[in-house]
What we know:
Layout: E1 7-10, E2 21-24, E3 28-32, E4 38-49, H1 61-73, H2 77-87, E5 98-108, E6 118-125, E7 130-137, E8 140-149, E9 154-161, E10 167-174, E11 179-185, E12 188-194, E13 205-215, E14 218-222, E15 225-231, E16 233-242, H3 257-269, H4 273-288, E17 292-295, H5 305-313, H6 319-336, E18 362-363, H7 367-371, H8 373-377, H9 385-404, E19 415-416, H10 428-431, H11 436-451, H12 454-475, E20 477-478, E21 485-486, E22 490-491, E23 497-499, E24 502-504, E25 506-507, H13 511-531, H14 538-546, E26 567-568, H15 594-609, H16 616-628, H17 632-645, H18 661-674, E27 675-679, E28 689-693, E29 704-711, E30 715-722, E31 725-733, E32 738-743, E33 746-751, E34 757-761
Helix pairs in contact: 1-2, 5-17, 6-18, 11-12, 11-13, 12-13, 13-14, 16-17, 16-18
Amino acid sequence: xxxxxxxxxxxxxxxxxxxxxxxxxxxxxxxxxxxxxxxxxxxxxxxxxxxxxxxxxxxxxxxxxxxxxxxxxxxxxxxxxxxxxxxxxxxxxxxxxxxxxxxxxxxxxxxxxxxxxxxxxxxxxxxxxxxxxxxxxxxxxxxxxxxxxxxxxxxxxxxxxxxxxxxxxxxxxxxxxxxxxxxxxxxxxxxxxxxxxxxxxxxxxxxxxxxxxxxxxxxxxxxxxxxxxxxxxxxxxxxxxxxxxxxxxxxxxxxxxxxxxxxxxxxxxxxxxxxxxxxxxxxxxxxxxxxxxxxxxxxxxxxxxxxxxxxxxxxxxxxxxxxxxxxxxxxxxxxxxxxxxxxxxxxxxxxxxxxxxxxxxxxxxxxxxxxxxxxxxxxxxxxxxxxxxxxxxxxxxxxxxxxxxxxxxxxxxxxxxxxxxxxxxxxxxxxxxxxxxxxxxxxxxxxxxxxxxxxxxxxxxxxxxxxxxxxxxxxxxxxxxxxxxxxxxxxxxxxxxxxxxxxxxxxxxxxxxxxxxxxxxxxxxxxxxxxxxxxxxxxxxxxxxxxxxxxxxxxxxxxxxxxxxxxxxxxxxxxxxxxxxxxxxxxxxxxxxxxxxxxxxxxxxxxxxxxxxxxxxxxxxxxxxxxxxxxxxxxxxxxxxxxxxxxxxxxxxxxxxxxxxxxxxxxxxxxxxxxxxxxxxxxxxxxxxxxxxxxxxxxxxxxxxxxxxxxxxxxxxxxxxxxxxxxxxxxxxxxxxxxxxxxxxxxxxxxxxxxxxxxxxxx
Length: 763
């Protein structure tokens, strides 16, 4: 067993789901408990969702929105909130959740008691994506290996014993409700059902087939249970199939689900276990091994992970665990969002509940976006693909929703799910918001900047940006007091402010809306220029951009969240939406807008002084903010706070409860502390991409190395530093762009050919 800087390990089995170890292949996710007597492997299939109806825009929405705008301009904020709630927002439909497939239960039978198992060890090696547990009972050592194969699209579990003929047990498939289990053969189980919420919201139909292969023993069936007797080793192969149709969710896929799953399981079972494992290791390693990070004195701590987390809670330091958490975020994206899968949702692809927190859906007012902040910078660009697929599949409904508001283009609100709805719904504080698709369009342009993929630019990024730009050209209205273009009615997710009539949520021209629209417009113009196309929309976009209202600085020096200086209802709110322009946007910089950087920093300090950052994802957003502010020590404080206060025993992010976006946001934040890259003109007049090396390096990370981080402009960067000083930087150019390296007060401008490397020595 290995206990190194890429391994989560424990000396006891998991007794709780939040201590179990996650494995996955995008389609399937499994939580492995590692119990030596009564094992549970909890399985989720990505496309099992409770079904329609979906939120639909009320026919009165357009008229109500126009009336609410005037109410807001007149200062009647509460009246506007009430009008929108009554006439514009669709009812929230919940629960209508993403759901698990079920549990694989393995009851071992040798007549022993749990206390007789000794020398127990449980681990997840992130480089191998294999959950391993082992234990000793009398003279026999038993080992279990569990992984999800991407190439075979199955979950594989292998049990082996050092003493031949000693593996005996009962194997079952179970689900809380909505499914039945039966034997298909002496060695095969079937779990079959349909997703629903207590018989309502009928959704996807599914079938799970388990094939059991015993070596040196026999397998027999008994109604809904398989019994293994006298085996040397046992391999369990689980496959699943559903009728969900990602391209057209309203038209279920035809075909025999049982036959599909059974064929998949039997094909994998006919493959020698060693070959299945070898292919899995190659598939996973091709992604995982692109990046390596070592921080400070990364001497491996031999204590179990839960003990190390507890030590941080008590004030200890553990930079190796901070690096492990970075690698864990990459691991989770690889295993929940490979190309060809559905994108990672609020739970990634790991969910044990028929009614998951927030339905396990796609919240596109930060959470889904945060899931993918790390994709480009940490060399997982291909894992970004499922996100792009989802956004493009939203377009038909997003266009229809825009037409209902009398607008061209397309928009999506705060949330979507497997059924691809886009309209606003619920309550004004979160629901009256049309920025979801627009924010997501940023990811399309970022992919172009990192990859240099001109085909993607022309065929995918530019069409998406055009849809969003068209919508905003029709959505924006002129503020009668300033003559500037503003968006609304809209919320600054999910904050509120105080008025003379009470708490209110909706305004015109809140900071996040204006920043996102500015970004859509500038990205669109950049994309048109990069594509070398003539475009009849560009002049219209340029004109609107010239009169677009942008956030100001309040009398207390903070960046304004709303167009007026309202008093915050909750000064420590978890969202910090008005700093979008700082991160994930790139609208403020120390060199070009220092006054806005100062205002953003003051806003952030004020939010934290009143208790902000209390959720996992929010704390990890703070890491990214602090990295952009180049405040290394505060960024590191947020890292320690996240690990000590907002992670579970298995290092999952807790909102609370579990919500995976923080894991991804953490990894993105660490990458941002080590490398930043932007297309702009710097203080020395240099052009092209500026690669800022170690821009927010905390003292605790005074020495270290990182290999394989990616920068805009198509660069791959390796860094080595010691005692806070850059020792060496190696830059690989994939696309032949010009860049300027920056570290401290040093600059080096270079143009490399595609495939060429450059090594820059530090001081």
